[in-house]
Amino acid sequence: MLDYKISSKTIFQYLPEEIIQKILLYCDPDDISLNLQRVCRRLQTLANEPSLWRHNCHLEFRFWDIKHCIQDKYLWPVGYVDWKSLFRYRRKVDLKTTQLLNSIICTQKSRISKYEAIAEFGYDAKDTLLRHISVDENTEDVLARRYYANSVLDYLHRVNAIEIWQKTLDDKSVPVETAFGCFDLFILHNKRGDVSEVGRLI
């Protein structure tokens, strides 16, 4: 007869690793890092699988700064990249970008330097800015948040365009479609079609 007194923890321990890995794909990444991996050694091992964090990077973040060569990394064997560290870095960028944007909204002091600080993150900050642009209508500072998030994103696009054009002046290899696509960055705002998508659209 089945013993119904068996704890859920005991049942969980008998689940195949493949099943647990599938379950982890639906768990919040921050919850995995802060809580789940501390439950037991088995979960700690499974919670640090590169394939899990590769999935989270792909799911959570659409835009990546060029320095990551992210499209190449997605093609590499999963164990070649420290995906968990990459995910943590993007979370830190998200947090810092939000803090800087909040400060821009709250005070006029040092706004230019805060714009520049966000732009230093490159396209790693773009997902965060787009999220603030799409903030809920009931948010207390919705108009100011959307305005400044759009303003910072426009600044980020312009900086990106100028950096690409500077490469052409320095005789570095830049695809023609990318160089011409930079003109769109000055009117792009939060729409699709930036230089990271030009190659895929042509």
TrEMBL record:
CDD domains: F-box_SF (cd09917). It comes from the Eukaryota. Pfam families: F-box-like. Residues 9-56 form the F-box domain. InterPro entries: F-box-like_dom_sf, F-box_dom. This is Putative f-box domain-containing protein. It comes from Golovinomyces cichoracearum. The lineage of its organism: Eukaryota, Fungi, Dikarya, Ascomycota, Pezizomycotina.
